[in-house]
Amino acid sequence: MGLIRTTDMSNPTPSLGSEHSELMNIYYNLFEVRIAQSPEDIQECHAIRYQVYCTETGFLPKSENPGGLETDIHDIHSEQALLVHRQTGASAGTVRVVLPDMQQPFGGLPARLASTALQELGSQMPIETTGEISRLSISKLFRKRVGDHLYPQVQGIPDMDESQRFKRIIPHITLGLMQAVFVMTQKHKLTHLCAVVDPILLRVLRRLGLHFKSVGEPIEFHGKRQPIYCNLDEMLRRTRIEKPDVWEIITDSANLAE
User: Is residue 12 part of a domain?
Assistant: First the structure.
């Protein structure tokens, strides 16, 4: 498979012709994916994670994450990305892909270490080419209001109070973070993904036409979480049929080999 093209903040917003879907035109005028490589971008990822996981939800203790930055032992074999709002330069969210570490059981993927069902998939999810979606976090600034769910809904967006100006972009944030995931999977030649996710996020992904397979029962992992996995090629083929506009964004207009 080829590598998804990401845009450069120093370049103008790409001009997309009429052959592209309305969703794609809106998305690329609003957002770009930026792989976190500079110390500043990496710190921004950890700061958003701290805001969501330590301050807002309390899933992780502040005492173990000093300086307002959330980190863990898996960051050493992970890559992170930011979704950047073009007009303001603000970070809308972050996500990381935990990469397989062949020196650890089950590639050192925390989801697979936590879920017996994922462990039992065996060769259906090859250790050396399976990564994990992790720490998908949306900045509070870009959510509909304080106290709402962590994952914006795809349809039926209610009015937002102080964030009214961001209302129309909410459905694109999860899509953008998933594009970031696919950028990273292609860069590292991964064939499969797994995760343990909030059922709300799983429903959002399905509405986007991104169908992960649930396996086993929900487990306790910072709250009740559903173990999921996918074969990337199979999922993208289904997305292309069901949601061609989403497929267009995820694959950057077929820059991924079919």
Answer: no
CA distance 248 to 72: 34
Residue 227 lies in a domain: yes
pTM for this prediction: 0.83
Residue 257 in any domain: the answer is no
Q: What is the CATH number of the domain that holds 139?
A: 3.40.630.30
> CA 139 to CA 209: how far, in whole Å?
23
In a domain, 17, yes or no: no
- Distance (Å, rounded) from C-alpha 158 to C-alpha 172? 15
Give the structural domain span for 46: 22-250
Per-residue pLDDT of the chain (258 residues), as tens digits, is 333 334 443 343 444 444 557 888 888 888 999 999 999 999 999 999 999 999 998 999 999 999 999 999 999 999 999 999 998 899 999 999 999 999 999 999 999 999 999 999 998 999 999 999 999 999 988 865 434 444 444 333 333 343 444 445 556 899 999 999 999 999 999 999 999 999 989 999 999 999 999 999 999 887 889 999 999 999 999 999 999 999 999 987 545 433
Cα gap 196→104, rounded to integer Å: 19
- Count of domains forming the chain: 1
